[in-house]
Every structure is written in structure tokens, then in C-alpha cells.
């Protein structure tokens, strides 16, 4: 299994390499790929050193799978070239997510849609993954009508530059800014650029991707995405209205039985999810599960996950694992 990691020197790329090793993915040859400025650098994987190559070289090496985390422009330009060479691309950017011919996959929900013909597969946005993984089993049972979500998103979602900005602000050092404002001791109600409707791209990803993954365009979704000065992962306050009534204990049981979800929900012991504890873990954590008493059939939840792992790298590799296990590559 020849595996290319495109964007191997970036923040998500580094986590991908770590998770490939942790999960013993069957890599017989690793092809680390990055931009021209990183070509020739060495990276270590499972005790061996590998030299970073450029995109053109990587395509010519015809990997079986290419895990992309190098931004939308790179994906649009290069994913088709890898696909033409027979490589199956799993792309972590937003480039292909809403393309009508490309599948948007959270393995626990819809991996069964994949076939050998899917040569470019889209990985959803980090904030979408943790929310839909939690909501999918509840949608099956109670039928979701409407979702209101507010996110509290880690600076790691912006990348190394944002982490450096926060560290500089902690220490009082002047440096390059990833955001328009300081992030230390602040909350910025903007993740990504604004669209014409006044919502940010991040907010609209939660709307469009949720409907696509759950295969239901009737689900109404409205979102507010906020950047907060934490490193451990993304948190979400989710209010969901169902067509049918529910029992809260039944909701807890369904979530407890769902692979990939850990329920942390005990107010007596102050047990609830926090990014501090989600960091470095692959599960999605859910708690503060309670009925919305202001209207019928409506539930409140608090959902937390490490955005670099399940929100990006782990989900990508789980897709690759499914392809291998089912002989699709």
C-alpha cells in the first residue's frame, strides 16, 4: 500500500502521519508530499526517514491512496491528476465537499456509499463531523427538523500561524497575526470569510454539509461560529428540534451505543465534555444532554472533539481503512 500524504509538513499532515502509525495502517511505502519550499526535507515515520517530494513527483509514483491536507487550491489543481493516475484521493479541504459527483463521508454514517469508482472522496469540515456523528443516530429515531448550533473553535483550526499568534500574545511578543484581532483573552465571532448572506463560510459549511451527509435537505440548520483562545479542540452548543418526542434517558442510551461517541453527562459529579480532555483523542464527547423546556420535542447538547484528529486526520484515515477493508483500493 503506497500512501502519499499531501501537506505532510503542515499541522494536519503531521497528525495524519502520527495516526497512520498509531493505527498500524498498512503502509508499505510512504510518500510525504509538500510545497516546493519543503521539498528535500526529511520527515520520520515509524523510525524511518523519508524525503519530502513535490506534487509532480508524487503523481508519477502512482500511490494507491493520497491523503490531502494542503488547502483547496492545491486539491482542485492536483486531486484530479492523482485520480487520473489511478490513485484514490481523500481530501481534507473544502474543495470537493459540495461537488454533486463527490461523496462526503463520515465512515460511521455513510461509508457504505463508497465504491471503487470514487477516486476523489471529500472529508467534511471539522465542526460538521463532530455534530453529525452525534446527530445521525438521533435523526434515524426521532427525525430532525431544525438545528441551531453555536461553535467555540480552537485556534488550531487556523493552523500553525494562529498557534504562534496566541503564544506571542501570552508572552507579550509582537509577531505575525493570523487574525484581525488579538485572540488571547478574546472571542472572535468570525471563522473564515463572510459570504453575501452575512454568514461565514464555516457557518454555511455546517448547514450544507449536514444536509448532504444526512441525505436530507429538509433539515433546517443555522449556525454561529466563534474562534476562542484554546488549543484542545472544538466545542459546540447544539439545539435540535425533532418531529417526534423523545425520552432524555433514551437519547443518552442511543448515544452511548453509537461507535465513536463517549457520553460524559453527570451534573452530580460535574462531568461534561471539555476540549482540555478531548485533545489527543479520536472520540466525539457529548454531555449537558437536556430537554429544551421552551418548546416541544427539542434537545440541548454540548459536543466536543479534537478538531485535528476526528475533525480532520482520523476521519480521513478511517475512510482509507474502510476502502482497504472492503477491497475498494
UniProtKB/TrEMBL annotation:
GO terms for biological process: 'de novo' L-methionine biosynthetic process; diaminopimelate biosynthetic process; isoleucine biosynthetic process; lysine biosynthetic process via diaminopimelate; threonine biosynthetic process. Residues 2-117 form the Semialdehyde dehydrogenase NAD-binding domain. It catalyses: L-aspartate 4-semialdehyde + phosphate + NADP(+) = 4-phospho-L-aspartate + NADPH + H(+). Pfam families: Semialdhyde_dh (PF01118), Semialdhyde_dhC (PF02774). Phosphate binds at residue 97. Pathway: Amino-acid biosynthesis; L-threonine biosynthesis; L-threonine from L-aspartate: step 2/5; Amino-acid biosynthesis; L-methionine biosynthesis via de novo pathway; L-homoserine from L-aspartate: step 2/3; Amino-acid biosynthesis; L-lysine biosynthesis via DAP pathway; (S)-tetrahydrodipicolinate from L-aspartate: step 2/4. InterPro entries: Asp_semialdehyde_DH, Asp_semialdehyde_DH_beta, NAD(P)-bd_dom_sf, Semialdehyde_DH_NAD-bd, Semialdhyde_DH_dimer_dom. Keywords: Amino-acid biosynthesis, Diaminopimelate biosynthesis, Lysine biosynthesis, Methionine biosynthesis, NADP, Oxidoreductase, Threonine biosynthesis. Catalyzes the NADPH-dependent formation of L-aspartate-semialdehyde (L-ASA) by the reductive dephosphorylation of L-aspartyl-4-phosphate. Belongs to the aspartate-semialdehyde dehydrogenase family. This is Aspartate-semialdehyde dehydrogenase. It comes from Flavobacterium microcysteis.
Amino acid at each position: 500500500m503506497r500512501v502519499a500524504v499531501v501537506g505532510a509538513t503542515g499541522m494536519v499532515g503531521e497528525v495524519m502521519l502520527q495516526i497512520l502509525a498509531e493505527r498500524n495502517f498498512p503502509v508499505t511505502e510512504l510518500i510525504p508530499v509538500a510545497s516546493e519550499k519543503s521539498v528535500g526535507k526529511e520527515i520520520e515515520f515509524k523510525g524511518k526517514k523519508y524525503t519530502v517530494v513535490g506534487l509532480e513527483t508524487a503523481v508519477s509514483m502512482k500511490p494507491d491512496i493520497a491523503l490531502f491536507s494542503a488547502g483547496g487550491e492545491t486539491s482542485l489543481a492536483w486531486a484530479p491528476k492523482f485520480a487520473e493516475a489511478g490513485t484514490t484521493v481523500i481530501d481534507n479541504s473544502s474543495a470537493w465537499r459540495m461537488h454533486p459527483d463527490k461523496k462526503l463521508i463520515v465512515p460511521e454514517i455513510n461509508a457504505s456509499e463508497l465504491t471503487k469508482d470514487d477516486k476523489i472522496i471529500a472529508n467534511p469540515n471539522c465542526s460538521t463531523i463532530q455534530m453529525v456523528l452525534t446527530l445521525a443516530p438521533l435523526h434515524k429515531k426521532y427525525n430532525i427538523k431544525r438545528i441551531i448550533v453555536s461553535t467555540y473553535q480552537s485556534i488550531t483550526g487556523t493552523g500553525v500561524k494562529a498557534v504562534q499568534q496566541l503564544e506571542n500574545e501570552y508572552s507579550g511578543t509582537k509577531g505575525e497575526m493570523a487574525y484581525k484581532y488579538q485572540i488571547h483573552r478574546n472571542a472572535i465571532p468570525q471563522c473564515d470569510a463572510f459570504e453575501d448572506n452575512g454568514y461565514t463560510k464555516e457557518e454555511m459549511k455546517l448547514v450544507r454539509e449536514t444536509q448532504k451527509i444526512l441525505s436530507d435537505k429538509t433539515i433546517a440548520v443555522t449556525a454561529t461560529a466563534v474562534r476562542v483562545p484554546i488549543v484542545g479542540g472544538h466545542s459546540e452548543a447544539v439545539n435540535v428540534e425533532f418531529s417526534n418526542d423523545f425520552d432524555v434517558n433514551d437519547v443518552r442510551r442511543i448515544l452511548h451505543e453509537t461507535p465513536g461517541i463517549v457520553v460524559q453527562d453527570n451534573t452530580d459529579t460535574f462531568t461534561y465534555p471539555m476540549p482540555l480532555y478531548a485533545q489527543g483523542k479520536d472520540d466525539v464527547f457529548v454531555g449537558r444532554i437536556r430537554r429544551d423546556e421552551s418548546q416541544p420535542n427539542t434537545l440541548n447538547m454540548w459536543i466536543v472533539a479534537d478538531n485535528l484528529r476526528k475533525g480532520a486526520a482520523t476521519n480521513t484515515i478511517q475512510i482509507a481503512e474502510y476502502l482497504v477493508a472492503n477491497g475498494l483500493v
